[in-house]
Design goal:
By secondary structure, this protein is mainly β. It has one domain. The protein contains 1 helix and 3 strands. The protein has a 3-stranded parallel sheet with strand order 1-2-3, with no helix packed on it. The longest helix has 4 residues. The radius of gyration is 12 Å and the shape is globular.
C-alpha cells in the first residue's frame, strides 16, 4: 500500500505532473468563484480555507 502523497498547491488551473503520488490541491477554495476540476479542495472537512488571504498555501 502506498503511503506517500505529494500535494501541489494550486489557486488557478495549470499544468501539473500527475501520477499516483502527486496530487493537486486547490487552496482558497472557500473564496474562489470556481472549483478547479480534478483537484483536492482545502474547504472539505475541518478547514481554514476562508482564511487563505492571510495564510496562503498553509490552508492546504
Amino acid at each position: 500500500m502506498d503511503k506517500i502523497n505529494i500535494l501541489i498547491s494550486c489557486h488557478k488551473p495549470s499544468l501539473t505532473m500527475r501520477n499516483k503520488y502527486i496530487k493537486p490541491m486547490q487552496v482558497g477554495t472557500a473564496l474562489a468563484k470556481n472549483k478547479i476540476e480534478n483537484c483536492l479542495y482545502d474547504n472539505e472537512g475541518d478547514n481554514i480555507s476562508e482564511k487563505n488571504k492571510r495564510y496562503c498555501e498553509l490552508t492546504a
